[in-house]
Write a structure and sequence with these properties.
Radius of gyration: 15 Å
Oligomer: single chain
Number of helices: 9
Distance between the termini: 44 Å
Order of helices and strands: HHHHHHHHH
Largest sheet: none
Number of domains: 1
Shape: globular
Number of strands: 0
Length: 143
């Protein structure tokens, strides 16, 4: 039995690809809704940190109550960001890598403590990948 309908999978993929649009660009919600639909924009909104990357505490609180679909998107985002940071430590420097680690780890801790009841297999796999990626970043930041 599939964990999600085809429509939900499509919405998760679209929102995952556009997860930073509201946070990092000037595009407005109505333009996104016209193009991708309200459900996709709602998912993007759930994973958007309205105060920016350096403001983590309120965002961590928000992550504790996001939908299961948004949980998957954010786990994938953290995994990808952590892997990029670990590979780019020579470009970014150890201090920046440590700063990103300190910003990402609380987000992951909030997410991994959540049960994902509607898509548990997907959440389990993304949790494993995010944990691996964050560990790789930790090793890169603390040689």
């Amino acid at each position: 039995m599939a964990e999600a309908t085809a429509a939900l999978r499509d919405n998760i993929l679209l929102a995952g690809l556009g997860h930073d649009l509201l946070e990092d660009t000037n595009i407005d919600r109505s333009s996104l809704s016209l193009r991708f639909g309200d459900d996709v924009v709602a998912l993007i909104s759930e994973v958007t940190n309205a105060r920016g990357d350096d403001h983590v505490s309120d965002y961590v609180d928000k992550l504790r109550s996001v939908s299961d679909a948004a949980l998957l998107i954010k786990l994938a985002d953290l995994a990808e960001n952590a892997m990029n940071a670990s590979y780019a430590v020579h470009e970014n420097g150890i201090q920046d890598t440590r700063r990103w680690e300190n910003l990402m780890r609380p987000q992951y801790e909030a997410l991994k403590s959540r049960a994902c009841t509607t898509m548990p297999d997907s959440a389990r796999l993304l949790n494993q990948f995010a944990e691996y990626a964050l560990t790789a970043m930790q090793h890169a930041a603390h040689p």
